[in-house]
Amino acid sequence: RDRNCDLDSPKGLLYKQPGITLGRCDVVAVTPWSAPIVWEETFDPVLVDAIYKPKNLTIATTVFAIGKYIRFLRDFLETAEKHFMVDFKVHYHIFTDQLQDVPAVDLAAGRKIFVHQVPKLKRWQDISASRMQMIQTIIEEQLYREADYIYCQDVDAKFHFRWGAETLDRLVGQIHPWFYDLGRDQFTYERRPESTAYIPPGEGDFYYIGAMFGGRVEEVYKLVKSCHENLEADKANGIEAAWQEESHLNWYLLYNKPSKILSPEYLWDDLRGKANVMKVVRLSHILKNYAEVREN
Ligand code: 2GW
Ligand code: MN
User: Fold this and answer.
1) pTM for the full model?
2) How much distance in Å is there from the Cα of 294 to the middle of ligand 2?
3) Is 292 left (phi over 0), alpha (psi -120 to 50) or beta?
4) Of 173, 187, 161, 178, nearest to 215 (Cα)?
5) Hey, which residues are catalytic here?
6) Half-sphere exposure of 99 (CA within 13 A, CB side)
């Protein structure tokens, strides 16, 4: 297995010369620690595919479909087959309490579904937070051997446009679509110093969404292990962070800077219409009837 991420120069591939003065001027495409922020027109998809395809990578994606959320799984998978890492080996790892209701979806060659049974926890806060521990376990038991990259996603979303290899990197965070244009003082970080997810006023880069994080398997392992330990430490102290694992994820990514950041194109929210900075919507959270899907 090729675990080496060096970019080989693709031979004989024609593409536009990289510019050093032109480019998108309406968005920031690099962070102050020099990590790319990925937007349409900041990369050439043909070039990106030519670089990554020969590496024979396996990309795992985890998705949880517990209780009523099983209803979102078919659209997630069917649209992923059209737009998510097309022509790459993708292993979907589905965590559910309803094995028999996992839809049969036609998968392209080299793509597979693995189903893992998990219990249905009573509190929704525990359902979303328990993902950190379950992802840690699946990495230990299987993904260290079987995958190069792992992307962890919410199920209540649909793909609409290319979501491809331009997202691959060591440690990848996703800008939350509700906060991308706000100041750090408005981010819903955990603000109580008693929590291990505490972020003091005056700190913070972006508000990252809990619905998507990813990267090299060994890097995501460190992330989920840390978040899981901090969730447990808080529980032992009788405190629960404002947005559960999303708060811990934000703490982790503030002090362990991501090497690549995805613009809101990569996770938008149907509630928000379309924003001018966005030339495409690649994946969006669907409108859902919260009261109905969340009652037991
Ligand atoms: C049930 C009641 C209330 C909330 C969630 C659930 C629930 C979530 C469930 O019954 N079954 C289930 O499989 N889930 C999984 O958790 C599912 O994969 C879902 O996409 C994910 C997160 O829950 P969701 O989509 O309702 O959360 P969001 O999108 O409204 O919220 C964001 O903030 C959350 C903080 O806890 C998470 O960080 C989430 O990732 C964010 O998108
Ligand atoms: Mn969601």
Assistant:
1) 0.94
2) 12
3) alpha
4) 173
5) 246
6) 6
Mutate-to-test residue for ligand 1 from 69, 98, 128, highest number of ligand atoms within 8 A of CB: 128
Q: Is the CB of 171 under 6 A from ligand 1?
A: no
Ligand 1 in reach of 72 Cβ (< 6 A) = no
Structure tokens at 15: 């593409």
| Average confidence (pLDDT) per 10 residues, the chain, 296 residues | 44 82 90 98 95 97 97 98 98 97 97 96 89 98 98 98 98 97 97 98 98 98 98 97 98 98 96 88 89 70
Residue 283 beta carbon below 6 angstroms from any ligand 1 atom: no
How many whole angstroms from 293 Cα to the centroid of ligand 2? Answer: 11
ipTM for this prediction: 0.96
| 3-class DSSP assignment, residue 86 | coil
Q: Can you give the pLDDT at residue 63?
A: 98
State how far the alpha carbon of 105 is from the alpha carbons of 75, 108, 113, 226, in Å: 10, 10, 9, 34
Ligand nearest to the CA of 76: 1
